Structures are given as structure tokens and as C-alpha cells.
From TrEMBL:
Organism: termite gut metagenome
Record protein name field: H repeat-associated protein N-terminal domain-containing protein
H repeat-associated protein N-terminal domain ranges (all copies): 16-72
Amino acid sequence: MQKKTNHYDIMTSLHQAFRELQDPRKERKKNHKLLDIIILSVLSVLCGAESYDSIELFGKTNLAFLKQILELK
């Protein structure tokens, strides 16, 4: 029987996969952590997002949930 994957397992895997990335942005322009932006983007694309606008819409639509798993402002 296959183990059911929960969203915490997925988040842990995404954190491990991307945690070593260097953030090229200037400190004063950082509104969100790079890892949070990447994870939001991955989740959005997995749910069908195909543009920056649809990633933004996904983030706004799912903000309450995303704040539970990411460090969003």
C-alpha cells in the first residue's frame, strides 16, 4: 500500500531541494524570502498557473493557507 503524502512532506522536500540557492536580490528589495517565492511558484504551476499573473492570482486566492506554510507578510 502506498503511503499518502501530506503537504508537510511536500514542503519539506521543496525546502530541501531549494535551500542552497543564493538570493541575487538587493537586501532593500526583498519583501519575501526567495524560498517562499519559489515554493509559491512551484505550487501555482502544479495547480495550473501558466503566467506571472496566474501565479499572483493563486497566491492571493490561497493566501490564508500559504501563510500557514510560508513566511509571507
